Amino acid sequence: MKTFRSILLLFLPLSLHAQEMELPYHQIPDYPAEYSSGNIVGRMIDGLGYRYYWATEGISESDLAYKPSEKGRTFLETLHHIYGMSETLLESSKGEPSIRPKDFTKLSFEQLRKGTLKNLEAASHLMKGKNEDDLATLKITFQRNDQQTSFPYWNMLNGMLSDCIYHTGQLVMMRRSNGNPQHPKVNVFLGKNRK
């Protein structure tokens, strides 16, 4: 039994590292060959994915419970909010409505993190290659019961996409304030960590 535990402990870090490598945005993917409307939006999503990956890497239970003020959101509540917006980002990229209300409170930190990163990756892939006419036909549609409200995709840029970047910056600030700063080699300009 002792030998089995020793072997298990030997492979556990490798297993955790392999799971981590499965997640997208450890570094930002290569940029597209051309500047098209969809490629630019996809690249913005990729930049968000890289920021979010490192803002949520190495988070402790203490970090999840941290909130900067009595009335502010906790780190975990901010993750719920970002996850919901990442779902809307993906649904809009697919041309699907975003059903409201949704409850993400039962999702674990790992589920929220992986789900957000996978949503961003899928949305980015769907956007890349789209041209100006394709983007003009995309809508953000919210559905509550039988009622739908639609907005042009422009609102995604100044709305959910910008808001996700904004809140990801808050995550970086919260973890730093809680004594767990993000990896010091993160380089958002290059989209990969410095050596």
Explain this structure.
The N and C termini lie far apart (41 Å). The protein has seven helices and three strands. The protein has a three-stranded mixed sheet with strand order 1-2-3. The radius of gyration is 18 Å and the shape is globular. It is 58% helix and 8% strand. The model is unreliable at 12-20 (pLDDT under 50). It has one domain (34-177): dinb family like domain (Four Helix Bundle (Hemerythrin (Met), subunit A), Up-down Bundle). It has helices at residues 2-22, 37-55, 61-65, 75-94, 109-127, 132-137, 154-177; strands at 98-100, 139-144, 147-152. It is mainly alpha-helical.
Radius of gyration: 18 Å
At CATH level 2, the architecture is: Up-down Bundle
CATH superfamily: dinb family like domain
Strand order of the largest sheet: 1-2-3
Helical segment count: 7
Percent of residues in beta strands: 5-15%
If you average the pLDDT, what whole number results?
Answer: 91
Helix-strand pattern: HHHHEHHEEH
| Low-confidence parts | 12-20
Total discrete domains: 1
Largest sheet: 3 strands, mixed
Chain oligomer state: single chain
* CATH topology (fold) name: Four Helix Bundle (Hemerythrin (Met), subunit A)
Text of the CATH class: Mainly Alpha
Distance between the termini: 41 Å
How many β strands by DSSP?
Answer: 3
Please estimate the helix content. Answer: 55-70%
Rough outline: globular
